[in-house]
Amino acid sequence: MQKNKVDRCTWFLGLALVLGFAFAWSPNTHAQSVCGNGVLDPGEECDDGNNTTGDGCSADCQDEKCGDGDIDTGEQCDDGNTSNGDGCSAECTIEPSCGDGVLDAGEECDDGNNTDGDGCSANCQDEKCGDGVLDEGEQCDDGNTDDGDGCSAECTIESKCGDGVLDAGEECDDGNNTDGDGCSAECQDEEEGEGCTPGFWKNHHEHWQDFTPTQLVGDVFTGCSVFTSLADDSLDDALRYNGGNSVLGAARIMLRACTAALLNEAHDDVDYGVDGVIGLCNAACATEDRSTMLGLGGLLDDANNDGSCPLSGDNTNSNNGNNRLGVRGVKGSR
In this structure, are residues 57 and 63 in contact, taking their beta carbons and an 8 Å threshold? Predict the structure, then answer.
């Protein structure tokens, strides 16, 4: 009895082993575990019976699609995503790009680079006057094509009043846009007023108004205190100044004219053509520049010597001779 039980157990065990071995080596069972056998097994998105990539079903039996990083049949590119605007579109087609040398939709030009200033801008638009970019051959570009704003419609620098250059249509240009200094803000000669010469004011203290002969140059023309040797001179001294070839000489020439101009401007009966004399002279002194001081001195000298002093007395025109010409002769030197 015991022997029969053992025999039966041995028989069942042997049968199980044979069946298990046969199942493991069954052709159908073996095929189920291999990608490329033409059978869609669990975990496979496809199985086209081969292990070739690029035919719609990858070597690991996954559907080949745009955005997987592999360039499949029908794809021009595949950058691993489905985003537009990065050179490869969401449909895996090559997107047009500025600088590739191909004129794409929305591009006015494409010269194969992304460089400004060569006629085609970095964003593939024609470079032209008025676009705000200074291109080759242009003197300026202020972002518009308007004349009269310093940069013309042809992107050339326009002459303008106040630049110190006498342009067509200008009667004068003294390098500023200030009225009252002989040349108006529109660069037209200002109407000549009345004026009395330094010689007149030197000899007629009785006509002085608001200022006195003993007042100090440095107290009245505070900006001219930079010239310490002149600051303690009186206004009467200033009217007697001579010139010189140095910067200090230019300051003397200018202060002589400034003092007469100051007295002309201050007098109730003199219709003087220059306003703000003290400010003009202070600013010129502060530069300590010979040309600047001689330039202002020449302008004020003209106003002081126009020959129409309305006040009684002699020497109303005493500075029209050599001294005046001397100022003009050294103007611009340093």
Answer: yes
Q: 67-112 pLDDT, tens per residue?
A: 888 887 778 888 889 888 777 888 888 877 888 888 888 888 988 8
Give the predicted TM-score (pTM) of the model. Answer: 0.42
Cα–Cα distances (Å) from 146 to 149, 167, 169, in that order, read: 7, 19, 19
- Taking the C-alpha atoms of residue 303 and residue 178, their distance in angstroms, rounded to an integer, is 16
Q: Nearest-CA neighbor of 315 among 274, 269, 260, 278?
A: 260
Domain residue ranges in the chain: 198-330
